Amino acid sequence: MTNAYAAHYGHNTDEWTRDIQMRCVPSLIQGLLKLPASIRALDVGCGRGDDVDYFASIYSYVVGIDICWQSEWQHVLSRRNNVRFECSDLMSLRSGPPFDLILDNGCFHHQHPDVYDAYLAAVARRMHSESSFVLLTFKDSSPHQHIDPQGRLHRYFDTKELHVLMTRLGLSVINEVDLYRIAKGDYYRLTFCRLHSCSESATSRNPR
Ligand SMILES: C[S@@+](CC[C@H](N)C(=O)[O-])C[C@H]1O[C@@H](n2cnc3c(N)ncnc32)[C@H](O)[C@@H]1O
User: Fold this and answer.
1) Can you tell me whether residue 132 is helix, strand or coil?
2) What's the gap in Å between 45 CA and the centre of ligand 1?
3) Which of 7, 36, 119, 185 has the greatest count of CB atoms below 10 A from its CB?
4) DSSP letter at 93?
């Protein structure tokens, strides 16, 4: 996985960095959640750091982690004093205080199925009762996957499959928005989650 990403970044074939459907995600999150400036955010698989830079312009503290180190991180760090980057796998991220917002903008759907549980458990461990986890995934009505020439796995989850995974790891889906992909003619799915116990108590406070 690390080699596949390093090859993409090294050859500037990281088309996701220039993907306008992904670059609009932070502004969509803030537009929907209207989080206060005081929050702490984590960007899992932050790539070159564009979303970290965006979040750092509105939130008090932002951490970006990625298995590939990026020279662009230095540029973000030179402009912002509320940012930390860590070259790390999510599952080995140092422990610390929880985050109010965790973004996964296109990282989870490239993981091997064997690590889904460990990956989502690592996310849930870094949340508190009011945290939001926002996840962008490929969407298809019939789940499938393929491996690209660089060796990256691409998983197209169907919505039910994704929700079952979330629920198993204690995450409840609060909201979901589709983002149209012009070049592919299909959709990304942006899923907003909370820890299960919190959404359960919210439901019981507001029975339908
Ligand atoms: C498709 S790219 C998306 C990058 C970035 N979020 C963006 O929107 O441009 C996925 C990123 O996740 C990183 N990555 C993959 N698996 C990871 C893991 N287990 N922990 C941390 N980063 C990971 C890759 O190196 C890559 O930069």
Assistant:
1) strand
2) 3
3) 119
4) P
What's the token pair of residue 9? 């970044």
User: Does the Cβ of 45 fall within 6 Å of ligand 1?
Assistant: yes
pLDDT of residue 143: 86
Q: Is the CB of 17 under 6 A from ligand 1?
A: yes
User: Count of domains in the chain?
Assistant: 1
Is the beta carbon of 16 within 6 A of some atom in ligand 1? yes
9: domain CATH number is 3.40.50.150
Residue nearest atom 10 in ligand 1 by C-alpha distance: 107
Token pair in block for residue 136: 């962008």
**Residue 179, class by beta-carbon neighbours within 10 Å (0-12 exposed, 13-18 middle, 19+ buried)?**
middle
Quote the pLDDT of residue 198. Answer: 53
Instruction: Compute CA 152 distance to the chain's CA centroid, rounded to the nearest angstrom.
Output: 17
Please calculate the CA angle 128-32-98 and round it to the nearest 5 degrees.
15
Amino acid identity of residue 5, one-letter, is Y
Give residue 207's pLDDT band: very low, low, confident or very high (50, 70, 90): very low
Structure tokens, 140:
């298809």
Helices (H), 1-71: 2-10, 20-23, 25-33, 50-56
Report pLDDT for 1.
83
- φ, ψ of residue 183 in degrees (nearest 5): -65, -35
Nearest CA to 56 out of 33, 75, 32 is that of 75
Question: Domain span at residue 200?
Answer: 2-205
pLDDT recorded at residue 80: 97
Query: Which tokens belong to 86?
Result: 């860590």
Question: Would you say how long the chain is, in residues?
Answer: 208
